[in-house]
Amino acid sequence: MNTIGSRRNFLAQVAFIGLSLPNVLRADGNSSIPTYGISNVVKSSENDYRYYKVDVPSSTPFHIVTKEKCTLNSPFLPSNEYETMGKPFPINADSSKPVALIEGKELGLKGHIEVYDLPTGYRLKYKFSPLIEIPSHTSVSSDYLIDTQKILDELPESLHESLVKAGAKIILAKDPEDAYYHYAPSQKEADKNKKPIQNGKWVGYKDGQWFDNRKFSHAPSRNNDLTIYSPEKYEDPLENLIVDRKKYKNAFKYTLLHELGHVIGNVKNHADKADFNLAFESDKRRLKVLKNNDVAYAYVSKYEAFAEIVCCFLGGYPNERKRDTLCSLYECSEFVRTKVLPDLGLKFSENDVEKIIENHYVAYS
Ligand SMILES: [Zn+2]
Hints:
Blueprint: H1 3-17, E1 35-36, E2 38-43, E3 50-54, E4 62-71, E5 74-78, E6 100-103, E7 112-118, E8 121-126, E9 132-133, H2 142-153, H3 157-166, E10 169-173, H4 176-181, H5 185-192, E11 203-206, E12 209-212, E13 227-231, E14 233-236, E15 241-244, H6 249-267, H7 274-286, H8 302-313, H9 319-328, H10 330-340, H11 350-357
Parallel strand pairs: 1-6, 9-10, 10-13
Antiparallel strand pairs: 2-3, 3-4, 4-5, 6-7, 7-8, 11-12, 14-15
This protein binds zinc ion (ZN).
Zinc ion is lined by residues 218, 258, 262, 304, 307.
């Protein structure tokens, strides 16, 4: 017998047997899976990894790292030091079952991150919304993935379920190339030659909002389309500027809720219904003066009006903009409130609306 070989075997055995860390609970099938909390965000900066310190009683703390590039299946890494078997969580005989759970609150996530002890090391998994998809040709940062999940976590459950059931999708990708043009290559040239709408720019910042004038930037722009394309970074070609959505969290949230508005409209073609059409025409006729420029976009078309109104009901935009949108487009808003949202399990009384907008809910003229 080779001495070195047997020593190796012996060491391997020690590694396996010696995993009995005092006071670390085992997930042995008889007891429930132990849950640990994140006690500290060890390092945090915009462009770097973030380290989250997980408290393991009477053992060295465990760090998890949000990855710069990630896919839905593998959004987090255990820090290298602990990416070994048996430390600090014991091996579970059944590697398909998690050995521990980490409370996701500190990362802004609802529920638990599951820790799997695989032959290759620890694998951390979190159940993201089935609405989110990261295609295999691209990747995003875990922060962007988490930001997206946080927005979806705030949606009422019945709405989330309806969207999943309808087959809605939010495709996350690194940039417009991977997001839009991968699916519509011919659109790329058309967009390059497109005349800018605002400020002589394709993409820019105005009135506290980023805008993106590319034809394909709105994701569910086509009829019946239930897919939102959501690039993490996009380029302003005139300014030679890379815009990172993670840095404009509110704008990102509003954009996503607006696009979800289109998706909701597309599920049953609500914006094409005769009643909605009448409401839109009537709102346009009634409104003599636009009191708030932020509402102008809602008048671009009945589809945009629909999306903007849904965005307001779902909690997008500051209160003032919500108020001015719903009161300017009062009849459209009433259509959405009474004919669309109840189907999705969302019931808003007029009183609820007044609470949302912190004002009287009346038609502007
Ligand atoms: Zn839109």
